[in-house]
Amino acid sequence: MQEKNITITSQIIRFNELVAMTGLSRSSIYDRMSPTSPRFDSSFPPKINLGLRAVGWFLEDVEAWLNSMRSNSLSERAC
User: Fold this and answer.
1) Among 39, 40, 43, 78, CA closest to 62
2) What beta strand segments (E) does the chain contain?
3) Residue with the larger pLDDT of the pair 40 and 9
């Protein structure tokens, strides 16, 4: 029997960690994810389904989104 080595390249975070990392409230996160919301953000990291009632986000996607928000903020200050 041959064993397969599985390498996990991306950590998954759950909702409470997403709230802590972004500083956004629960409702603000749902607003950013909802296409019908006026605060919808198409660049917000997509959720991934982990089970029937469990979702998560790839840590690297959240970090990339936060870095892009920081870059946008810094470039706006420079103007």
Assistant:
1) 43
2) 12-13, 48-49, 55-58
3) 40
